[in-house]
Design goal:
Layout lengths: L28 E3 L9 E11 L6 E11 L3 E3 L1 H9 L8 H16 L3 E8 L10 E5 L1
Antiparallel strand pairs: 1-4, 2-3, 3-5, 5-6
Length: 135
């Protein structure tokens, strides 16, 4: 079955623009023909950075995204730039996973989604928040 060619503005662009915040980032989607199968997509990066909203110090961690698509998949370059946009944002780690979940849920309308953050220890404490949603 032929797929409709998606309208993508980021992938294949001659110029890569790095968004300065998640509000300015654009998550793009491509069609997914699941043919009735239950498919889980897992995406992860161990190069995630943001800032502590109180101290301004950098937070480093891994973000793992697991979702069951309905009709759309996230385009990976747009996701990379979206995640990069947190780099200079002061935000608590628990808020990060919920923000990512909500933004992807809005862009993809998946059957279910789970976002896990595994952040490096700060002050001797590791924080590993998980946000999930099921239709």
């Amino acid at each position: 079955m032929a797929h409709k060619k998606p309208h993508l503005t980021i992938l294949g662009s001659a110029h890569t623009a790095y968004p300065t915040s998640p509000d300015k980032a654009r998550l793009e989607a491509i069609p997914f023909n699941n043919q009735g199968n239950h498919t889980t997509v897992t995406l992860s990066t161990d190069e995630f950075t943001s800032l502590c909203p109180v101290t301004g110090q950098p937070d480093f961690g891994e973000i793992v995204i697991e979702y069951v698509p309905e009709k759309l998949l996230v385009e990976s370059k747009s996701l990379k730039l979206y995640l990069f946009s947190f780099r200079n944002l002061g935000i608590f780690q628990e808020e990060i996973v919920n923000r990512i979940l909500n933004d992807l849920k809005k862009a993809l309308k998946p059957r279910s989604i789970k976002v896990t953050g595994r952040f490096k220890a700060r002050g001797g404490i590791v924080i590993a928040p998980v946000a999930q949603w099921n239709r």
